[in-house]
Amino acid sequence: MESKVKIFSGSASKYVAEKIAKSFGQTLGSVTMLKFSDGEFQVSFEETVRGSDVYIVQSTFPPSDNLFELLLMVDAAKRASANQIVAVMPYFGFARQDRKDQPRVAIGAKMVANLLSAAGVTRIITMDLHADQIQGFFEVPVDHLYASSIFMPYIQSLNMNNLSMAAPDMGGAKRANAYAKFLKSDIVICYKQRSKANVVDSMTAIGEIEGRNIVLVDDLCDTAGTIVKAADMMIDRGAKSVRAIITHPVLSGKAYENIEKSKLTEMVVTDTIPLKKENSKIKVLSVADLFANVLHRVHNFESISSHFIC
Predict the structure, then answer these.
(1) pLDDT at res. 266
(2) How far apart are CA 88 and CA 116, in angstroms?
(3) Which of 14, 90, 122, 146 has CB 3.0 to 4.6 Å from 272, enough for a Cys bridge?
(4) Within 10 A of 162 (CB to CB), how many other CB atoms are there?
(5) How many C-beta atoms lie closer than 10 Å to residue 285's C-beta?
(6) 165 forms bridges with which residues in the sheet?
């Protein structure tokens, strides 16, 4: 007998989980959270999940309560005899800690993978991991989706001539190159130097900029320092326009102010993380239909490779 699908949401991602469930063709399951006066909390499914395939939607952006809430929901589903427990994580937090880049530091992404496995997840569905190798931190299947299937049609709809895809740093060269190959455009690579985290000291670029319509592409934007510095530099060097496409709008500190004051034409993001406030230069594209379609395919044991544009 085929298992039922039940979709639930953590408190941090209810805004996108509702859209995913609607696109899937059902309503969100009922979950309650009991909060104690000392800050401790307890989650509870208010309907049976016995024998069901349970999909729990929760991005794990700060605070870490969002991650722990997801872990508690996974544990609750396991103890309630769910058939499958799938963590749907549009944004996988702690992904920037994917290796030891200096002595005596934790590999946070691996630790999060261990926690999810220990809690009882049987599958992970996520989008645009900061490093592809994080998939290997898990001993369960990981469906790693790419926002390119959302961004590509948007870029094509702009009908821009003299298009160049750009990476805001050397680490993003592979991603920018994939977009450039698909769109048959030129590529620009930025090189930056930092003295400390979230502070860019200097930046230069490799590639033709003058007279080009530039699209910067990255997996996430935190303080917006790198993106803004790259955009301003390119306009100063004769670019016709500079846009940015960012999967995860972390946008902390003075990010909104930096973006508003920058020479960016616009920044296009997804709703894996909710915006903290409106900004005239930020446009949001939803991931809900993509995730809902993948949930259908995963449940019916169908291929999802058609979603991988680049």
Answers:
(1) 97
(2) 12
(3) 90
(4) 15
(5) 17
(6) 187, 215
